[in-house]
Amino acid sequence: MIRSRISFLSTFLMKNFLNRSIIRSQSSSSSSSIDLNSLSQTLLRRAILYVPGNDQRKIDKAIKSFEKIDSIVLDCEDGVAVKSKDDARKTILNILNQYGSNELLWKKLSVRINSMDSGIAYEDLEIIFSGKIIPRTILLPKVDTKTNIDDFIEYFKKSKINERLKHPIDLITYVESAIGLLDLRDIAKHTIDMCKTLNNMHFAGIVFGSDDFCANIGATRSDEGKEVLMARQHVILVCKSLNLQAIDSVYINFRDLDGLKRQSEEGVSMGFTGKQCIHPDQIPIIQETYRPSDKKIEWAKGLIKEFEQAQQDGRGAFVYHGQMIDMPLLKQAYNVINIAKQIGKV
Ligand code: COA
Ligand code: MG
């Protein structure tokens, strides 16, 4: 029922609002419109779990319980020692070939390559993209400049990888330095434009790499995180202004689950859509905190129903739960239902 309402809603919104550019989103120009169809296909990333790409035991463990994990990041970057990079690339290639036919699992398999400035990202790309199965999501760390994006996109163009793609690749970038943060919106807008030059690349989100960021600005990490508050808020603003997922810091003290819960709740209240994690014990806490509450899901369902009714009655503005409903609230309701659908709550 709700599914048909959503599709009705998206059709309605497409027809009635897009032309008027009321909904604004992923675009380099502030006046163009959101593609609600792509919004409804957004992959769930409440928790993204890093697994060192060379650690077969941990990879097997993550894959065994993949149904309970939103996103598994097979890492080639900082979770892997320099001398084990090649081992990681080959192990990841094997994993993709072995499990790529399981679509549910494949959708959750992401690969974090090394940064474009490291000089070794091309080796990652060369090996990881040499198989039949291509990762669903690529994470690109330490994006400091537009040139980093140009180099990445250029590789895809030259290697003609996108001609072999049957599905789009999601790109997720990292902001981990002062210059990356200061130029973030420009870089993100450029990334959207550059992804459009390839047919099958979708810029999906930004990760805040807090530890590298602190090292870069010379800050000392504290429990309350005052030193990264402004940076976190800035990442959220940029992501929201461009309809991107916003993924919060790692809570590195992985045995302290109370602290993790506190930081996750704070992230949710600030507007983050997900959080990085490094240990399986962190997953249920993060995913539960980042899921919409039953109350919120009911609110969203009711709002969409009221919206439909108002449209049928020819009413423009309408009131729901004492609030005048405007487009941001309608979009929020749509987002809530999108997540709820993916976790089986509607
Ligand atoms: N993914 C999958 N399985 C993991 C895991 C991960 N990230 N972290 C731990 N596990 C597994 C362990 O292998 C162990 O399983 P086992 O008993 O069957 O061997 C189980 O979970 C319990 O692990 P535990 O003993 O509590 O932790 P550990 O000492 O083995 O590992 C870390 C601790 C931090 C080294 C490990 O969690 C890790 O490597 N995390 C990822 C770090 C990373 O990628 N950092 C870079 C991004 S910030
Ligand atoms: Mg980092």
Automatic annotation (TrEMBL):
Pfam families per the UniProt record, alphabetical: HpcH_HpaI
GO terms (BP aspect): regulation of cobalamin metabolic process
SUPFAM superfamilies, alphabetized: Phosphoenolpyruvate/pyruvate domain
UniProt entry keywords in alphabetical sequence: Acetylation, Hydrolase, Lyase, Magnesium, Metal-binding, Mitochondrion, Transferase, Transit peptide
Cofactor: Mg(2+)
Localization of this protein: Mitochondrion
Entry EC number(s): 2.3.3.9, 3.1.2.30, 4.1.3.25
Catalysed reactions listed for this entry: (3S)-citramalyl-CoA = pyruvate + acetyl-CoA; glyoxylate + acetyl-CoA + H2O = (S)-malate + CoA + H(+); propanoyl-CoA + glyoxylate + H2O = 3-methylmalate + CoA + H(+)
Top-level division of the source organism's lineage: Eukaryota
One Gene Ontology molecular-function label: hydrolase activity
The keyword Membrane is assigned to this record: no
Major subcellular site: mitochondrion
Transmembrane segments: none
InterPro entries named in the record: Aldolase/citrate-lyase_domain, Citramalyl-CoA_lyase, Citrate_lyase_beta/mcl1/mcl2, Pyrv/PenolPyrv_kinase-like_dom, Pyrv_kinase-like_dom_sf
Gene Ontology cellular-component terms listed: mitochondrion
Family, similarity comment: Belongs to the HpcH/HpaI aldolase family. Citrate lyase beta subunit-like subfamily.
PANTHER family registered for this protein in UniProt: CITRAMALYL-COA LYASE, MITOCHONDRIAL, CITRATE LYASE SUBUNIT BETA-RELATED
Described purpose of this protein according to its UniProt entry: Mitochondrial citramalyl-CoA lyase indirectly involved in the vitamin B12 metabolism. Converts citramalyl-CoA into acetyl-CoA and pyruvate in the C5-dicarboxylate catabolism pathway. The C5-dicarboxylate catabolism pathway is required to detoxify itaconate, a vitamin B12-poisoning metabolite. Also acts as a malate synthase in vitro, converting glyoxylate and acetyl-CoA to malate. Also displays malyl-CoA thioesterase activity. Also acts as a beta-methylmalate synthase in vitro, by mediating conversion of glyoxylate and propionyl-CoA to beta-methylmalate.
Subunit-structure text: Homotrimer.
Protein name, UniProt field: Citramalyl-CoA lyase, mitochondrial
Source species: Dermatophagoides pteronyssinus
Lineage of origin: Eukaryota, Metazoa, Ecdysozoa, Arthropoda, Chelicerata
